[in-house]
Amino acid sequence: MRRYLRVVVLCLACGFCSLLYAFSQLAVSVEEGAGGDGGGKPQAAVASWLAGGGTGGAGPAARPSRSDRCKDFSLCYWNPYWMLPSDVCGMNCFWEATFRYSLKTQPIEKMHLAVVACGERLEETMIMLKSALIFSVKPLQFHIFAEDQLHDSFKDRLDSWSFLQKFNYTLYPITFPKENAVEWKKLFKPCASQRLFLPLILKEVDSLLYVDTDILFLRPVDDIWSLLKKFNSTQIAAMALEHEEPRIGWYNRFARHPYYGKTGVNSGVMLMNMTRMRRKYFKNDMTTVRLQWGDILMPLLKKYKLNITWGDQDLLNIMFFHNPESLFVFPCQWNYRPDHCIYGSNCREAEEEGIFILHGNRGVYHDDKQPAFRAVYEALTNCSFEDDNVRSLLKPLELELQKTVHTYCGKIYKIFIKQLTKSIRDRYDRPPKER
């Protein structure tokens, strides 16, 4: 009996060893297959009306190849991964190979940020991008749509930031469908309508955060990006209301077209699930047939072009008036504008938690109408990427904000630095391993 028992145990042991060996070979071969096409940058998808693609650059260095990382492929270690020499891959090591493969199959999520810049908006756009980089954790992919004469300036400035190794960028020309290009260019401002075509141009991008050039991030982009997970099954985009207080609302008092909710929405900060946008069939007041994103834009413009004031934002309001179930509305602190404090504070969330995203529309960063907004813009303009420099920006900024208390926005100046203080503490005051 003992002899038979020994034979059974020996067979089981041999079978187990064979199984481990097979799994180790499978893991290594899969790892090599997964790593064979890494390191390259996906090309930006371009709409059919574009003559050429965008140009890109700046960002993390290419990952080291397997031959650079591993000095020895021949040794086999059956130790736990953390006991292996750092420069040994171990061709037949099951635990080590599977551990490395698991890392390769879980790449860090990249956040996509788009902006449209024309005319004199180069500097403003660069400060916006800087604010995004200062606080964000996950890597960023910038999609910058700009007039041709701005491309070289953008490239020079962004390439000088390549030491950050936490972003890539792609530059695109300003383009509209050829058959209606003149009409789209005349709508509101020369470049403003470009944002309407982002789902059709960036065909390979699943989700995107669009912002105007006059945006400043006072909180990591990661936090607004995480709102995508809060979308229900019908929601395709997120925006903030145009006004919290109907008595000073523009849409409810002056609009000659349909608009979302009681006061409309502001499109200066727009989070989009573009896969859903491209797939959705939208209800409308032009036909009983539901239309997709690429088919609804021109008919909508033709019907309402004599009735709209704010261009593409009005078209978005009309669209979400007929499809309210498709919009996720985020609080005003994610798109805080002078309207929220010009006649007294009317953004309760910002009073409680501070401003998350500052939107200096109507040129308030560059005049004296809203000095509190200008003080934040100038503080970030003068701030560099060094940790100590970021930490030291708060005290001078608070002193400048205290000089603005003669305005309604200045009276509540603490909301301008409340979230900013937390963002700096979380990002720069923690030990590196905790960031």
Automatic annotation (TrEMBL):
It catalyses: 3-O-(beta-D-glucosyl)-L-seryl-[EGF-like domain protein] + UDP-alpha-D-xylose = 3-O-[alpha-D-xylosyl-(1->3)-beta-D-glucosyl]-L-seryl-[EGF-like domain protein] + UDP + H(+). It holds the Pfam family Glyco_transf_8. Residues 1-22 form the signal peptide. It is a single-pass type II membrane protein. It comes from the Eukaryota. It is found in: Membrane. Its EC number is 2.4.2.42. GO terms for biological process: protein O-linked glycosylation via N-acetyl-galactosamine. Glycosyltransferase which elongates the O-linked glucose attached to EGF-like repeats in the extracellular domain of Notch proteins by catalyzing the addition of xylose. This is Glucoside xylosyltransferase 1. It comes from Castor canadensis (American beaver). The lineage of its organism: Eukaryota, Metazoa, Chordata, Craniata, Vertebrata.
